[in-house]
Amino acid sequence: MPFGQGRSACVIITMTQNLTIIAILIVAAIVLAVIAYLHRKGTSFTKLVFGSLVVGVVFGIGIQLIWGNTSNITTQTINWLSIIGSGYVALLQTLITPLVAVSLIGAFTRLTDVANLRKIGVTVLATLLITTAIAALLGVLSVFAFHLQGAHFVAGTSADAANLAAIKEHQSALKGVTLPQQIISFFPTNIFADLAGTRATSTIAVVIFSAVTGIAYLGLRKTEPEIAAQVAKGINVLDRLVHGIIKLVLALTPYGIFALITKAAATDSIASIAQLGVFIIAAYVALIAVLIVHTLILLANHINPIRYYKKVWPALIFAFTSRTSAGTLPLNLKIQTESLGINSAIANFAGSFGLTIGQNGCAGVYPAMIATIIAPTVGINVFTPQFILTLVAVVTLASFGSAGVGGGATFSTLMVLGTLNLPVAIMAVIIAIDPIVDMARTAVNVNDSILAGLIAAKATDNLDHKVLDDDENLVANTL
């Protein structure tokens, strides 16, 4: 073909691709316009989010089936849609540390019975950590049930270069750091840097600083009540301001969910999903088993599970679609206080601590599964009680500091693998389908946080049973 004709053909192909990308983006814009119309008409928040999820999955899979998951058309289309999806996530991440700090300090200012403080803290932490240990054990059992130990199911697959690089980057940050040293890193050395999220452990550092500040406030309330009252007033003002900003960001959730899910469905290889499908099924089985354990805890405390899940459903579906426990915190607190009748101080304790400690999905089930899958590849007998008990203990300890945003599960898992001296290469293969598993992990994380608040409120007689037992008392779910 002559040079001129070849160049003309390239121009035509490029123009065709550009027109195709524009056409796809126009369809996406129409979908977003419909979401905006339904939003203005007062459609419930849960319906909007769930609808955006479904439409995003269908739209994304359609793009992948027609143009493939790595084509220029798919890549460029997703790049444009990422302005919405990634922008939404960036806004949420910006607000995480201020929200945690204000919520936790605010919990101390709202605490009326200081004598219950120790019992509240112990009950919340015990619920989070015990359920994490159980979640880790269920993750191990799920690996056994599906015969995943030894990672034979990944035979013939290779790690994506980008995924492997990300794992190596995380690993290098933890290289040579023992578990005790990692725990020491949770403590803040520069609170302003941690408020800016400069470290992987910034969130728990903010939690620790906020808890210390809250305890200092309680001392001030005894010695100088007038100054303490001014502090409480200032915190209340900040709380309202932060939650006002959060409300604006949450209103963008259906649009962000549509863009994020479209990206996942369009770019996550269907072939990889099919090949690693057994791991996805095993993970979901383990996570559902954790929810069953949560349900048994509800029954043991004489709480109607059907009523409970009906009330917390908006938070769970939001967590599932957004994949951020931190972003779910405002809705989490709203449901705890307004639908379940939990004292606001306890709700703030449980919500804040649940972001960084004992996340059942990201820091319980997932690290335990990955470690059990990898261990036999280096000659470890995973069926021995010694291995299982050691793994459960390490996972529970490593659950301190798991961030409530994307990447928290990777961080916790690498801590566990590093402590047990296990290789990470197989993890780089499994991470290819991580978004699918992460949705259920995040929902389980949030449910455990709410459960901890409910159990602590009941144990300290800070639970409004009239609110809890009112089947019609649901969060309005409109933003």
Automatic annotation (TrEMBL):
<keyword id="KW-1133">Transmembrane helix</keyword>
<feature type="transmembrane region" description="Helical">
    <location>
        <begin position="411"/>
        <end position="433"/>
    </location>
</feature>
<feature type="transmembrane region" description="Helical">
    <location>
        <begin position="273"/>
        <end position="300"/>
    </location>
</feature>
<keyword id="KW-0472">Membrane</keyword>
<dbReference type="GO" id="GO:0015184">
    <property type="term" value="F:L-cystine transmembrane transporter activity"/>
</dbReference>
<comment type="similarity">
    <text>Belongs to the dicarboxylate/amino acid:cation symporter (DAACS) (TC 2.A.23) family.</text>
</comment>
<keyword id="KW-0812">Transmembrane</keyword>
<feature type="transmembrane region" description="Helical">
    <location>
        <begin position="241"/>
        <end position="261"/>
    </location>
</feature>
<keyword id="KW-0813">Transport</keyword>
<protein>
    <recommendedName>
        <fullName>L-cystine uptake protein TcyP</fullName>
    </recommendedName>
</protein>
<feature type="transmembrane region" description="Helical">
    <location>
        <begin position="120"/>
        <end position="146"/>
    </location>
</feature>
<feature type="transmembrane region" description="Helical">
    <location>
        <begin position="200"/>
        <end position="220"/>
    </location>
</feature>
<dbReference type="GO" id="GO:0015293">
    <property type="term" value="F:symporter activity"/>
</dbReference>
<feature type="transmembrane region" description="Helical">
    <location>
        <begin position="20"/>
        <end position="38"/>
    </location>
</feature>
<feature type="transmembrane region" description="Helical">
    <location>
        <begin position="87"/>
        <end position="108"/>
    </location>
</feature>
<dbReference type="GO" id="GO:0005886">
    <property type="term" value="C:plasma membrane"/>
</dbReference>
<dbReference type="InterPro" id="IPR001991">
    <property type="entry name" value="Na-dicarboxylate_symporter"/>
</dbReference>
<feature type="transmembrane region" description="Helical">
    <location>
        <begin position="387"/>
        <end position="405"/>
    </location>
</feature>
<keyword id="KW-0029">Amino-acid transport</keyword>
<feature type="transmembrane region" description="Helical">
    <location>
        <begin position="45"/>
        <end position="67"/>
    </location>
</feature>
<dbReference type="InterPro" id="IPR036458">
    <property type="entry name" value="Na:dicarbo_symporter_sf"/>
</dbReference>
<dbReference type="Pfam" id="PF00375">
    <property type="entry name" value="SDF"/>
</dbReference>
